[in-house]
Design brief:
about 90 residues; alpha+beta; GMP Synthetase, Chain A, domain 3; three-stranded mixed beta sheet
């Protein structure tokens, strides 16, 4: 499992996803610098993220169910995040 992230929001995202979904692989990437000055950029440097996660918890789940599980794990961080790109897979996919 990777622990590549930057900033307190990214760190909390990583912690929550790891705790809730026990992933084999988890990468939280802060993409905010690519969106500086765009709509949704709150100036914090932590508004746009990508998550790549491989978890046994996703086996047999639809794409929508996987995204819902990620949003549920992130909880109160979701309103703080302007954009979230998700790649969620089960092992072997």
């Amino acid at each position: 499992m990777s622990d590549t992230f930057s900033g307190p929001v990214a760190a909390r995202m990583h912690e929550r996803l790891a705790a809730a979904l026990a992933p084999d692989r988890l990468v939280v990437t802060n993409d905010s610098a690519k969106h500086h000055g765009h709509m949704g950029d709150d100036g914090s440097g932590e508004s746009h993220f990508s998550v790549a996660i491989v978890s046994p918890a996703f086996a047999g789940q639809s794409r929508i169910a996987r995204q819902r599980a990620i949003h549920a794990a992130l909880g109160d961080l979701v309103p703080r995040i302007h954009a979230l790109s998700i790649s969620a897979k089960a092992p072997g996919e």
